[in-house]
Each structure stands twice: as structure tokens, then as C-alpha cells.
Specification:
single chain, 335 residues, alpha/beta, D-Maltodextrin-Binding Protein, domain 2, eight-stranded mixed beta sheet, four-stranded mixed beta sheet, 16 helices, 12 strands, 17% strand, globular, disordered N terminus
């Protein structure tokens, strides 16, 4: 049977439109995250995409962007079209809210103030702990080389700073003046300020610089797994800070792309038993008690304090310590 040239063109155009429409039925999400979650999301993403395909019959592809938490927030504020952000402190997401990318009440949209897991700051030392580093006060001793990220660009670095400040506050007779002196001495022992936690890890483990790396618990455990427990030891200080990792849908982006449903489901998956199990396997502390109990052996009990408890919340801590001209800048000038 012969078709007229006009009919052939119509049929071909219809076929192309069908194929084009099918291709665009697939959804791609971008997750802008901080830099020590790379391995976590390598496991979370395929688990979610499989779950979504099985329950909704739709293919979703998750792309990742990693860096220092504050750098990532600035990238999104400056136009990086992330559907979701998964950061390590509230102020980075608050920055996006102030820029109109999502509502100011973003914490109320998911359980636990939109933080599906926590971590804490611990010490990683060379095998055998040759400098006998046991607690925060060992980090201010002369001759101890400390590796930590830059508090101006890294949530990991800010947690290190606040953990040390809080330790000093909680000592007998502790006050802000003594805490400031303590943190000043600690950062005097930091020769390199990497932009993020993963950069600090590289400095300590690959460049072999430093006696101790202050980092998140999950990062310290991962280093032991990947580089060998015969090279490093993890030291838990007597007290440390609870690091909540907040997440949020970026409304302006998902509304533009039409990906709100998938982005919301992606973050909700982090709270599911399957998501929480993956989180625990990567040494982040899960929220679901049954999962936390299942992995209790790998999470050493430690006395923790929160940013709200000692610093009046992240907004106040940011303004006092990390804003331009704040306490950290004053300390850094004298390093």
C-alpha cells in the first residue's frame, strides 16, 4: 500500500512526538548535598529509584552535587537547579528560604524538624594514637597538629568549632571568655583550612598531615573501612555536639520542573525503614528506634549537647560566631 508524502510526514511526526514524549516521561532529580554524603547517596539513590519504579511505574534518575555545605547552599541560591537539598545544618537551608526558593517553615514539612538522621564530631588519629589524644583539651596542646575544615565554608567545620566551644563551656567554671580562648588555641593548631570535610579527610589520610582529624562520626568510620583499620583509630571525646542533617524540597525548582511529587517522595524515603537502614549502614545515626537498636553496637554512647541548648539555635550561632566580623573571623585573624 502506498501512502501520500503528506500522510507519511504526518505519521513520522506522530511517531517522533510519541518517542519524544516517552523520553520526557522519565524524571531527573538533582540532590545538592554536603561532601561526606557521597557514599550514602550512592546507596540511597538506586534503592529509591527501584522503590519508585515498583510502586509508581516511573523511572526516576537521581543526580548528585557535593561540596562544603555552605558552598552548596550558595550554589543553589545562585542558580544551581537542585530539586532537593540535603545539608548538615539549618542555616544553609535558611539561606535558600531568605532567597525565596522555599518557605521559611520548611522544618515543619518532615519529621524531626526535617532532619532524618544525626551524627557527631569525633577524632580520627594515627594507629596506636601516638600523641595520646583522648579529649578536646588535648587538641590545644602545643605541638599537636589538628586537621579540620574551614568553619566559614563547611558545616563540618562549624560543628567542630561549636563542639570545642561547648566542651569548654561545660568545664567547671566555664564561660564564653574561657571558651573563646580555648577555641582560639585549638584553631592555632590547625595549619590547613580545607573547604569541606572531604578535603580535610584527604589532607589527613592522603597527604599524611596532622596528628588528629576532627570530623563526623560517619566519616571517621568510613575511613576505617576504606583505608584499613590498621592505619587509624577513632577516639570519642567525653562530650560532643549532636549534628542534625536537615533536608528540604526546593519549591522554586520543583514547581518549575514539575518534579514536586518525586522530590517529596525521595526525601520521605529517607525516613522509611529501608532508607533508615541504609543510613545506619553508613554510620549515620538513624531516627527510627528499631533501626538504631539494630545497629547499637556501632554507635558508641556519648554525652551530646545541641546547638539549641548551648547557642540559642543556629540563627544566633551563625550571627555570633560565623557571620562576617563574628567571633570566628576575629579568631582567624590571629591564627
Amino acid at each position: 500500500m502506498k501512502y501520500s508524502p503528506g500522510l507519511v510526514r504526518v505519521l513520522l511526526a506522530g511517531t517522533a512526538a510519541l518517542l519524544f514524549g516517552t523520553a520526557h516521561a522519565d524524571v531527573t532529580l538533582l540532590n545538592a548535598s554536603y561532601d561526606v554524603t557521597r557514599e550514602l547517596y550512592k546507596d540511597i539513590n538506586p534503592a529509591f529509584t527501584q522503590h519508585w519504579a515498583q510502586t509508581k511505574g516511573e523511572k526516576v534518575t537521581i543526580e548528585q552535587s557535593h561540596g562544603g555545605s555552605s558552598k552548596q547552599a550558595m550554589s543553589v541560591a545562585n542558580g544551581l537547579e537542585a530539586d532537593v537539598v540535603t545539608m548538615n545544618q539549618d542555616t544553609d537551608i535558611d539561606l535558600l528560604a531568605r532567597n525565596g526558593l522555599l518557605p521559611t517553615d520548611w522544618r515543619q514539612r518532615l519529621p524531626f524538624d526535617s532532619a532524618p538522621y544525626t551524627s557527631t564530631s569525633v577524632f580520627l588519629v594515627r594507629k596506636g594514637n601516638p600523641k595520646n589524644i583522648r579529649d578536646w583539651d588535648d587538641l590545644v596542646k602545643p605541638g599537636i597538629v589538628v586537621i579540620a575544615p574551614n568553619p566559614k565554608t563547611s558545616g563540618n567545620g562549624r560543628y567542630t568549632y561549636l563542639a570545642a566551644w561547648g566542651y569548654a563551656l561545660k568545664q567547671p567554671g566555664g564561660d564564653d571568655a574561657k571558651a573563646r580562648d580555648f577555641v582560639t588555641r585549638l584553631f592555632h593548631n590547625v595549619p590547613v583550612l580545607d573547604g569541606g570535610g572531604r578535603g580535610a579527610t584527604t589532607t589527613f589520610t592522603q597527604r599524611d598531615l596532622g596528628d588528629v582529624l576532627v570530623t563526623f562520626e560517619n566519616e571517621a568510620a568510613l575511613i576505617g573501612q576504606e583505608l584499613g583499620k590498621d592505619k587509624f583509630d577513632i577516639v570519642y571525646p567525653s562530650i560532643s555536639i549532636e549534628a542534625e542533617a536537615p533536608v528540604a524540597v526546593v519549591d522554586r525548582v520543583v514547581d518549575k520542573k514539575g518534579t514536586r511529587t518525586q522530590a517529596q517522595a525521595y526525601l520521605e524515603f529517607l525516613y522509611s525503614p529501608a532508607g533508615q537502614d541504609i543510613i545506619a549502614r553508613h554510620f549515620f545515626r538513624p531516627r527510627l528506634q528499631q533501626v538504631l537498636q539494630q545497629y547499637a553496637d556501632q554507635f558508641k554512647p556519648i554525652q551530646l549537647f545541641t546547638v539549641d541548648e548551648l547557642f540559642g539555635g543556629w540563627a544566633k550561632a551563625q550571627q555570633t560566631h560565623f557571620a562576617d566580623g563574628g567571633t570566628y573571623d576575629q579568631i582567624a585573624e590571629r591564627r
